Amino acid sequence: MHAPPRHYSAFLLLAASMTLVGVYVALSKPLVAAIPVFLLAFLRFGIAAVAMLPWTVRARGEAKLSPREFRFLFLQSFFGNFLFSICMLSGIALATATAAGVILATLPAAVAILSWIFLRESLSRRVLLAVFLAVGGIALLQLARAEQPAPGFDPGATPGAQTASALGSLLLFGAVVCEAIYVIIGKRLTATRTPLRVSALINLWGLALSAPFGVWQLTDFDLASIGPQTWVLLVFYSLAASWIAVWLWMAGLKHVPANRAGVFTVALPIAATAVGVFLLGESFTALHAAALAAASAGVVLIATDQETGHRSPVTDH
């Protein structure tokens, strides 16, 4: 028995979403260097809010949000939009690329475990093997990076620099947990609302949550100092992070159990590495090839899994 065609479409949507996330995470470094983190988050949500106005207003005939949906939308935005953005952007600014990739590699395992705990979705042997391959593949990929230290990286860094790197790693792990929670909550919301509607509403919550901190940083920042190229990158980051990637993920998650969807998060660090290889001139070694092969094998295992898994009734209403 093979996965239904709509499941294959869902797999493509999930992979595309995480690939896009990996791309904009990698390209966010120049944004973090040019714009304070909280202001960057505020501008991101504000630009996306304007673009998604058509889906922000309740459509004619659409039922009002229930208290339960309202609560889930807030929690998903708080963890998946606001906290994820702050932790990821702050962590990338402090930690090495190697540390970031290794920590991001725990995303599939985190999602699978949380979906097992909170959604009571079964973990088949193929899913467990896929998670193992995904984590192992990205670990290999980061080993390849470790053999080529980033320019300016000093292994004998001062205690202060080491503390900053440790804090960066902690923030990145916080981003992993936030992303895993985002996946779990998203599975509940897609049963009742369209992906674009969910995307618009959680972005609106992100704007509200980031506004106080963003406005505070804006008082000491000159927007005129942002160059045209940075503005273009900021618009791409805003639309990709708050709109396109979220819509792709929600649309795919509607037809796939959360524990299987979590494996597709391996595309995030893979895409970030690909940007480094093809846009930043990093070399592609045998370790890179082995890492990509292992991660791809994990995705194939998930896509062809014959066990549908047992879902808790709470995920279906």
Percentage of residues in strands: under 5%
The proportion of residues forming helix, as a percent range, comes to over 70%
Shape: globular
* Estimated radius of gyration: 19 Å
- Tell me how many strands there are: 0
Low-pLDDT stretches are: 150-157, 308-317
Helix/strand-derived category reads: mainly alpha
The largest β sheet comes out as: none
How are the secondary structure elements laid out?
Elements lengths: L4 H22 L2 H6 L2 H15 L1 H4 L10 H28 L2 H8 L2 H12 L6 H22 L12 H31 L5 H24 L9 H26 L4 H4 L5 H12 L7 H18 L14
Helix pairs in contact: 1-11, 1-13, 3-10, 3-11, 5-9, 5-10, 6-8, 6-9, 7-8, 7-9, 8-14, 10-11
Walk me through what this model shows.
- The two termini are 27 Å apart.
- The protein contains 14 helices and no strands.
- The chain has 317 residues and is mainly α.
- The protein has one domain.
- It is globular, with a radius of gyration of 19 Å.
- The longest helix is centred in the middle third of the chain and has 31 residues.
- 73% of the residues lie in helices and 0% in strands.
- The relative contact order is 0.23.
Summarize the structure.
The chain is 73% helix and 0% strand. The chain has 317 residues and is mainly alpha-helical. It has one domain.
Key words describing this protein structure:
317 residues; mainly alpha; 0% strand; globular; disordered C terminus
